[in-house]
Write a structure and sequence with these properties.
The complex is a heterodimer of chains A (about 110) and B (about 120). Chain A contains no helices and 9 strands. Chain A is mainly β and about 110 residues long. In chain A, strands 1, 3, 4, 7, 8 and 9 form a 6-stranded mixed β-sheet that branches. In chain A, strand 5 and strand 6 form a beta hairpin. Chain A is globular. Chain B is mostly beta strands and about 120 residues long. Chain B is built from no helices and 11 strands. In chain B, strand 5 and strand 6 form a beta hairpin. Classes of the chains: A mainly beta (about 110), B mainly beta (about 120). Chains A and B meet through strand 7 and strand 8 of A and strand 5 and strand 10 of B.
């Protein structure tokens, strides 16, 4: 059970907007630590999608956006496309005990 | 284009040592070519951070794996290595290396290797 909680699955039709939540606590997101998002297409390595809560690396379409509020963060995808069908993971820093980078459990996005 | 490639045995026996190497190629050699991380994904599960090592020589480990893991690097060869001792079936996973981008808040994994599947079985 990850300290960052994500819904196991979300779905949407092409063209729609979907959001994926990432809920943590005071030792991670709520403690002011940045949240990052990764996209993992089937059979491929994860790819950095959003860093520092709301920044897109070069080459990532602006259909993808991130936000953070309190102990939670969200990834929004607008204009959903079939190629967006993938698993999405959030990541942050967890300061308890020795401290470590932590990932959410992942959310499988299905494009209907 | 920066490329990372993991290498190592695909099959390791229980109680033995898992050793993996990550070699970087392409891209321009930069001062950040010594900030490395290892992440794994067990079958049917999510991503798990294993360890990170930085240009200043500092290393950080997942508390749950700390007693069994060692990360090292050879900057001249643009390589990072991971060793995991006393492996069990629970260590079966796809192992990824990644270049870490340090930040004042939470570091992130900027570029990833394609991953290598390691199975622990007798």
């Amino acid at each position: 059970q990850s300290v960052l909680r994500q819904p196991p699955s979300v779905s949407g039709a092409p063209g729609q907007r979907v959001t994926i939540s990432c809920t943590g606590g005071s030792s991670n997101i709520g403690g002011g630590y940045d949240v990052h998002w990764y996209q993992q297409l089937p059979g491929t390595a994860p790819k950095l999608l959003i860093y520092g809560n709301n920044n897109r690396p070069s080459g990532v379409p602006d259909r993808f956006s991130g936000s953070k509020s309190g102990s939670s963060a969200s990834l929004a995808i607008t204009g959903l496309q079939a190629e967006d069908e993938a698993e999405y993971f959030c990541q942050s820093y967890h300061s308890s005990l020795s401290g470590s980078e932590v990932f959410g459990g992942g959310t499988k996005l299905t494009v209907l | 284009q920066l490329q990372l490639q993991e290498s190592g045995p695909g099959l390791v026996k229980p109680s033995e040592i898992l050793s993996l190497t990550c070699t970087v190629s392409g891209g321009s050699i930069s001062s950040s070519d010594c900030d490395w991380g290892w992440i794994r994904r067990p079958p049917g599960k999510g991503l798990e951070w294993i360890a990170s090592m930085y240009c200043n020589g500092r290393t950080y480990y997942n508390p749950s794996l700390m007693s069994r893991v060692t990360i090292s690097s050879d900057t001249s060869k643009r390589q990072s290595s991971l060793k995991l001792t006393a492996v069990t079936a629970a260590d079966t996973a796809v192992y990824y290396c990644a270049r870490v981008r340090p930040s004042s808040s939470s570091d992130y994994f900027e570029f990833w290797g394609q991953g290598t599947l390691v199975t622990v079985s007798s």
